[in-house]
Amino acid sequence: LPSQRLAGRHVIVTSGPTHEPIDPVRYIANRSSGAQGTAIAAALRDLGAKVSFVTGPAEVPPPAGVDVIRVQTAVEMRHAVETALPADAAVMAAAVADWHVTNAQDHKIKKDAGGMAPSLQFAENPDILAWIGHLAQKRPALVVGFAAETDDVIAHATAKRLRKAADWIVANDVSPATGIMGGTENAVTLITEDGAESWPRMRKEQVAAQLAERIADALDHLPED
Ligand code: C5P
Q1: Partner of 84 for a Cys bridge, out of 52, 57, 66, 156, CB 3.0 to 4.6 A?
Q2: CATH assignment of the domain containing 58
Q3: CA of 144 to the centre of ligand 1 (A)
């Protein structure tokens, strides 16, 4: 039997993209399969955690044995995360769209006979990681974010850790040459207050299993509430 070292712990995991509507049939989104977030939720479940899995419309199905909360937009995702609190840890693996369309239409936008393209207006979405990291009350003891970078991975991810008040950032190099985007493997660097730790390239399930063990290590040093 696998050890249940996260029994009695509650972890919130966000995963997948968000879809920000333009009209009833169109949306903007980031590219995200949801594979890494799904693997993390499954790994936490395997260690006995109660997992609230807040997912946008991902390509991969959610794991069994977790509480699945399906959302479309970033605003819905933030609200679902808030509703799932309190939690011992939060892992924000979703590829949240940075903007939503403020002039979204209730009816399908028709092509203009004169060839005029519609113009979209954008407003910034809530940054769910920064919001939870900066929570005064109900902040999970351990807040973990991700950083997909194409250059200066460690410098950018370290800055992101501080800016978003995360405890850890799991950074990965998503430059096209790595083939990581949409693939089955990941090569990550774990950024903590102690520095940067590069892990060898491995399957996303293995990254998830190691991360879940590290989360259990960290929570071992904290009281259960
Ligand atoms: O700033 P950037 O999008 O690169 O940060 C990535 C991290 O922040 C990820 O953990 C992602 O889930 C989280 N994030 C979020 N809400 C946003 C944007 C990013 O939770 N609106």
Answers
A1: 52
A2: 3.40.50.10300
A3: 10
